[in-house]
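sanity check this record:

:::
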Amino acid sequence: MATSPRSTTTLTIRRFRPEDAEAVGRITLSAYDAYGTIGGEYRDYLGDPTRRADGCTALLVAELDGEVVGTVTFVVPGDDAWEGPDPAPGDASFRVLAVAPEAEGYGVGRALVSRCIELARELGCHRIVIVSMAWMTRAHALYHRLGFVRRPDLDLRFPSGDGAMFQLDLTDEAAELFPPPGPVPDELPWFEDAWPR
């Protein structure tokens, strides 16, 4: 894809198809590698979207002028790809948000996250809770613009660094359904201890 600005663009969000696998895997790894380091088994997981496709509510891709340039995995409790604190009824989440570095600045990430918010509302969810690596500061700025708030009381440690938690309440009832933020721990818990499976 050319890196020069486009005069016109058509951005489409749609469901993942098997023929997207190579492009989605490549985009995901290049997006993560542009800002930090992910290694080990999780890198293999990121690079192979077929490992997520059947275990999530929706694996989405973004097309810019017909070319796949982004992806996100939308999950609800009960999905095999759910990753996070013990879910409460009404929770939703998304994972593995990635935009091809050469497609940044076209609203791809915003469109993908906005579609996840729409899906959560369509399913009657009350909130979205997500985790993002601490070094993903561009994504954090996007989440703040879309109304997410930080939940440092839920932060934890991963092999690739610290994870920062965010939450977006979708309904007025969310404040009554979920516990309020608690104290921020002096030392971040290890993710396997905080999220037992």
Q: What stands out?
A: The mean pLDDT is 90. The helical segments are 21-33, 40-47, 50-53, 108-122, 137-145, 174-177, 191-194.
